Amino acid sequence: MTTAKPIRIRPLLASATPLSTVAVQGWVRTVRRSKEVTFIELNDGSCFASLQLVCDTSIPAEILDQIATGAALHATGDLTPSPARGQRWELQVRSLELLGGADNSYPLQKKRHSLEFLRSVAHLRPRTNTFGAVFRMRSTLSFAVHRFFQERDFLYVQTPIITASDCEGAGELFRVTTLDPLSPPQGDNGIDWGADFFGEKTGLTVSGQLEGELFATAFGDIYTFGPTFRAENSNTSRHAAEFWMIEPEMAFADLAADCALAEDFLRELVTNTLNDCAEDLAFFDQRIEPGLIARLEALVCADFARMSYSEAIERLEKAPRNFQFPVAWGCDLQSEHERYLTEEVVGGPLFVTDYPEKIKAFYMRQNDDGRTVAAMDLLVPRVGELIGGSQREERLDLLSARMQKFGIAPESLDWYLDTRRFGSCPHAGFGLGFERLLMYVTGMENIRDVIPFPRTPGHARF
Ligand code: 4AD
Ligand code: MG
User: Of the candidates 36, 90, 25, 91, which has an alpha carbon nearest to the alpha carbon of residue 64?
Assistant: First the structure.
């Protein structure tokens, strides 16, 4: 055993000079043996690249024989210039310790595995090139999200995960209960939820917005960043039952300010990706989505287009193609419509604004035309809806009337209505789906491949 303190491979590969007696530890990606030398590619997750370990005959054959793909190693040696192409440094190994072996039943043997297969080994896929890159980017971007808002003096608020209100009104709450499912207490109209743990019917939150609004009317600008749950049984590549959402909310702001913030936010996150994730991004550009980097660079300079819902419908009606879902004013935009607009009509990011009041949530502010609300969706190529937001209805009478129209009893949200009773002010916000953002910046096509352990209908393993 050596006494040298292990160094991560990322700083090691960035070293300006050779180094003597350094220790590394990680997992074996591949082993190549010849008579005189054994080459081991060691990866420790700190960066995309692996470090080449060069073991000559001074390393006992009994140790080398046990080393195979997947094994965990501790190695000590000297960092020296590598004669091999594509790598600057290699480690001339002086001592090698096998920490944990792996036999040939290790599922990630050296060959290309399909993303579907890798989903079935989600406990091991972080050790692959693709998922190493995805989850490093996820971590870097999480931090960038906080930095963006903290630099702008937005207060970070942790809104509850267990809630009694269905913010979006779509009835997609997962139930949270401690009642016995076999014999729940009965009331006059079925199950007596009053006897449940919280004394009322509760579920997992679909959005932190309503509580976010409460904080915005005290702190001005706030944001949330946390897990969100939706029991929508849609088995698409863009929906997960558990996902992470970022929800800023600004007091004294209208829809235009909301769009401006969303635009700055996306542009800065993409800029961060380009600056801080260059090595991983190069991999995605090469292997996952050719042209990805150019597309991201274009986004940084692009003007984000804006179009009202009514204009979007006109464009769709005139489109020289047949959609699976017919289009008419008043209908909800389907993913095929959104993608046509952003990919073919504008060829870049597009804000669609001012949707019909009937298809949007109760809290959105009514426009003067009486038939639309101050809503916005940001659509981007390939992913479709990345952001959904709105200016909120701050006028108590109009909000109460709108709630009644949606069948929401005003008493059930009396605390929410209090913000309109006491010091009400114009305010606006949006929600960005973090996994959708990751799909956009990595080129990965399935939401299951940008979240560590995806939860989708029928799947909660790991
Ligand atoms: O458009 P949504 O439903 O808006 C809200 O929840 C508002 N309360 C946000 C706000 O104004 N504060 O969801 C916002 C975003 C969507 O644009 C999408 O990116 C993402 O959340 N999203 C999902 N992502 C993954 N899986 C799902 N099932 C998603 N549902 C929404
Ligand atoms: Mg939406």
Answer: 36
Q: Which residues are in the CB-under-5-Å shell of ion ligand 2?
A: 388
Ligand 1 centroid – CA 432 distance (Å): 6
Report whether pLDDT(2) > 80: no
Of the candidates 167, 160, 161, 214, the one whose C-alpha atom is nearest the C-alpha of residue 416 is 214
Locate all alpha helices (DSSP H) within 332-460, ordered by sequence.
Answer: 335-339, 396-405, 414-421, 434-442
Question: For position 86, what pLDDT does the model report?
Answer: 87
Q: Are 434 and 218 in contact (CB under 8 A)?
A: no
Q: Are strands 51-55 and 186-187 parallel, antiparallel or unpaired?
A: unpaired
What pLDDT is attached to residue 115? 97
Looking at this protein, which amino acid is placed at residue 310? S
Identify which of 207, 245, 246, 373 to mutate to test ligand 1's pocket (most ligand atoms within 8 A of the CB). Answer: 245
| Structure tokens that stand for 454 in this block | 């995806």
Which residues partner with 83 through β-bridges?
none
Helix axis angle, 255-276 relative to 292-301, nearest 10°? 140
pLDDT at 48: 97
Atom of ligand 1 nearest to the CA of 447: 25
pLDDT tier, 441 (very low <50, low <70, confident <90, very high otherwise): very high
**240 ligand 1 Cβ < 6 A:** yes
CB of 430 within 6 A of ligand 1: the answer is: yes
Report which bound ligand comes closest to the CA of 430.
1
With residue 389 as reference, give the H or E element that holds it. Answer: strand 384-391
Supply the residue whose CA is at minimum distance from atom 21 of ligand 1: 433
Residue indicated by tokens 């909301």: 258
320 exposure class (CB count in 10 Å sphere: 0-12, 13-18, 19+): exposed
